[in-house]
Amino acid sequence: MSATPAITSAAHALDLLDGALAYLSAADPAQMPAAVQARCLTAMERADARTTAARAFILAAFTSAQGYRDDGDYSARSWLMNHTRVTKGTAAGHAGWSRRGRTHPRVLAALAAGGLLSESCARLICAWTSRLPADCQDNADAILAGAAEMGMGLADLAGLAAEIQARSRPDVPDEDGPRFQDRAVKVETTFGGAGVMAGDLSAGVRRGGDLGAGRPVGAPGRRR
Predict the structure, then answer these.
(1) Could you report the per-residue pLDDT of 10-42, keeping only the tens digit for each?
(2) pTM for the full predicted model
(3) Is 75 in contact with 94 (CB distance < 8 Å)?
(4) What is the DSSP string of 3-70?
(5) Helix (H, G, I), strand (E, B), or coil: what is residue 94?
(6) CB under 8 Å to 101, separation ≥6 — which residues?
(7) Where is 124: in which H helix or E strand?
(8) In sequence order, what are the residues at sequence separation of 6 or more whose Cβ sits closer than 8 angstroms to the Cβ of residue 110?
(9) Do residues 111 and 148 make contact, with C-beta atoms less than 8 angstroms apart?
(10) CA dist., res. 54 & res. 108, Å (int)
(11) Taking a C-beta distance cutoff of 8 angstroms, is the pair 201, 143 a contact?
């Protein structure tokens, strides 16, 4: 039997969320074993990612319905500043994520899943793929978000993004057909349980090795 209570409404979910955060903020971290501290930190990072996705989806719907007008505000940004007491820059950041829900749905979906993709890494992925031709962005988002979910580090992600950008240029032929069609990344388990990143992207990417083929994911000496 699951110890997780069944959530019956948005209000119920918010009550549980508030209670959980109240407990953690009042707890004495010095009394926690290091393993529990580490679990708290990783879980909070996942919570940040999911909070970003949830806020983006809700704010997009709130903006579309012009819900801010009910409180006499002229925009969602002004409503956020007046009713959630955030700064102008933070309100702009929240609005930016609500727009990314339309332009980068795969990245938002990965954040909502609560895996290894962090909010800050997702922001970089969106910035990288926004520079690509429109017909390449969705598949590039899928490739990069998938690689991040499988443990690829930031340096390797940047290299992969650069390869994708190079392959997207009209003057670079893609002998595999439509750009980025049928590209994929995967992690395979090797001797000792180490994960090895492999990819099926394009000849140009495979040649460069930027997927980290043969490199253990999370190996000693490498930051994840």
Answers:
(1) 999 999 999 999 999 999 999 999 999 999 999
(2) 0.74
(3) no
(4) SSPPP-SHHHHHHHHHHHHHHHHHS-GGGS-HHHHHHHHHHHHHHHHHHHHHHHHHHHHHHHTTGGGG
(5) helix
(6) 53, 56, 57, 60, 108
(7) helix 119-129
(8) 117, 122, 145, 146, 148, 149
(9) no
(10) 9
(11) yes
